[in-house]
Amino acid sequence: MIITLSIALTPATLAGLAASLIIGLSLGLIGGGGSILTVPVLVYLFGVEPVMATAYSLFIVGLTSAVGVFPKYKEGLVDVRTGLIFGAPSIATVFLTRQWLVPNIPNTIWQINDFVLTKSVMLMLLFAILMVAASVSMIRDPKTTSTQSELSFNYPLIVLEGAIVGVLTGLVGAGGGFLIIPALVLLTKLPMKKAVGTSLLIIAAKSLIGFTSDASQQTMDWTLLLSITLMAVAGLFAGNALSKKIEGGKLKKGFGWFVLIMGVYIILKETLGKHA
Known about the structure:
The chain has helices at 11-30, 38-44, 50-74, 80-104, 119-139, 155-172, 177-188, 192-215, 222-242, 248-273; strands spanning 2-4, 108-112, 115-118, 219-221. It is mostly helical.
């Protein structure tokens, strides 16, 4: 592992550190959504190359989620058995994606006239599409689900969903809570609060294991990584404290609209901004 230590406190990086605080704040307040901002923050505020940003995001999201899962576990809001069943295929596919799929994607994927779809642009567009999908799930009113004393597992769908989430996490570095939480509620009949806590466990495990593939092969700026992660963790604790005083439903919708605007902005920037 090669380690470098370098961070310059420019206006852009200071804005990035403030945004990192918001990432953790969102996770603490509404149980998700914040990690979807990690890659855009790394790319547009810290100037990290998109492919490397997906690797950095795995560490930031994974470690922040790992810290966040402990208070949820103490409150009895983490179902370890469900986390293992869903997490096993997710962990396997995220590791395989980072180890073999991402390195083998060609730098130039497709070209038509002056438009060139590069590997970096493709990852940013995929990420933006996921941001739009995440925003819709945050903006919509959640469906009420009845709690059951006995969990009902749909094993084939759980394994399939876990594998799909793992591939997406490996490609774009997002935690995927907006995909995991609905799957846990629908496929295992977990109550929403327990689904959120269990999702943090799954996100932490698959993100950190996925990151190990990159850490053994790439040069990492650990000062930058740890600075962003510490800000996100600080935001997480602040969000947990505020969540007891602030109703999260309206905050979730407002944050969803923000994520939607950011997703559309990235799509326009990556498709039109560089070729105007």
